[in-house]
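Workshop exercise sheet. Pairs work together: one partner reads the sequence aloud, the other fills in the structure field after running the prediction. Swap roles for the next sheet.
Pair: D.N. / O.F.
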Amino acid sequence: MAGHKAGYVNIIGNPNVGKSTLMNALIGEQLSITTPKAQTTRHRILGIYNEERMQIVFSDTPGVIRPAYALQESMMDFVRATFEDADVFLYMTEPGDKQLKDPELFARLSRIKTPLLLLINKIDASSQEALEEAVAHWKETLPNAEILPMSALNRFNIDVLLRRLKELLPDSPPFFDKENLSDRNERFFVSEMVREQILTHYKKEIPYAVEVEVESFKEEEIIIRIQAIIYVERETQKGIIIGHQGKMIKKVGIGARKRMEDFFKKQVHLELFVKVRKDWRSKEEQLKRFGYK
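Structure field:
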């Protein structure tokens, strides 16, 4: 398509620096779930920004960590894959945040020839002194990066970032249909919205031992009927998820249903079930079933 620009803009960073908030702000939709907990994002999620003569495919990835078990290894595989198809890299940090928790990935980032924008996020919650220290640190540490202070939550400098990305994108036809907001289907977003509520309402290890699978998604004229299974690793976790007299799982269901109704712009009937799948985070076949391989 003559005169059209398109490309992959891949977002990378440590946990809790605001990558998902950034992608949601850029797309204008709540595609990626956001919570204060680390490892909220487990998959690589594409968000698609469209204009008449341009398409930007943003890639939100899990925060970079040192893997401790098979699920986390798979999450880091999603991050490594971003080095294969990026037309522009966004490396997101915040004042006080230093290099990636995986030194090998950071070394790769420092050597890339792909355009690299270093975004110092959350400046609304930082002092001018801390920001200046961060800018000085990154100028020395990543001299190949363009530095842009911003606040994704408050949309500060989002317009500046978009303008710069438009300048950097290569000439290319669109990769996806212009009506698409993501490469993911409805079932994926349903499972993420349920998981978001679990991350919000439960503490300690429980949210990390959970996976959600949509068993049934039936869209009717005025309502969507959904059945989803919450998988945990142990029987004790099942009891915690359900809660006394079912109060906790009811709270999760109400919160998730509201998010779904906002997202789908339609009434939603949601049924949640809890099952045990022992040690699923460490088993290859289970990770494949849940889309991590």
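Discussion prompt: The mean pLDDT is 94. What would you look at next?
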